[in-house]
Amino acid sequence: MTLTSASGGYLLQVGDDTWIDRESAAEAIDQAEGMLRSNNWKGAWAPSNIAAITARQPFLVGEEGEWISRERARLQSVLLRALDCLSEI
């Protein structure tokens, strides 16, 4: 992991093996929606729950910024999609 100064801010570079929860949530909801399209309700349950649980977590509480607002909106979208999937199961 490397933290460098870039464009008046900071850039955090992480290794390819770094797990990022919000990316996993987005992948999980995509997987769940695909399973529902294939009528695999049982298979969609776990990824839907993973996405919902992860997306419910507060993101950088007390911090503000344009990119933070975008990430919060993205997580809100993931949460709504996850809840929609769970309502169909």
Number of strands: 2
Report the biggest beta sheet as strand number plus sense, adding barrel if it closes: 2 strands, antiparallel
* Oligomeric state as shown: single chain
Q: What is the first-to-last residue Cα distance?
A: 40 Å
Query: Percent helix among the residues?
Result: 55-70%
Q: β content, as a range? A: 5-15%
Individual helix count:
3
Overview of the structural elements:
With 89 residues, this protein is mainly alpha-helical. Helix content is 63%, strand content 11%. The protein is built from three helices and two strands. A two-stranded antiparallel ribbon has the order 1-2. A hairpin with a 2-residue loop joins β1 and β2.
Keywords:
two-stranded antiparallel ribbon; 2 strands; 89 residues; mainly alpha; single chain; 63% helix
Quick structural summary:
The chain is 63% helix and 11% strand.
Reconstruct the topology from this structure.
Blueprint: E1 2-6, E2 9-13, H1 21-37, H2 41-56, H3 66-88
Antiparallel strand pairs: 1-2
